[in-house]
Amino acid sequence: MVAIVRRMRKLRALLDIRLGPGAAVLPPEVTRIHMDFAVDIHDGHYGPRKFWRNCLPRLKYHNPAVPMTVNRTTNQTGPALMTVHLTSPKAAATIKPEISSTTDKQTSTGPVPESKAGPPAERTEVINMKHRHDSEILEQLLRLTKAKVVRPTAEEQREIQEMEEQNAKSERDATMMAKVNAKKKREEEILEQARGEVEAIQE
Question: Does residue 64 contact residue 110 with C-beta atoms inside 8 Å?
Answer without folding.
Answer: yes
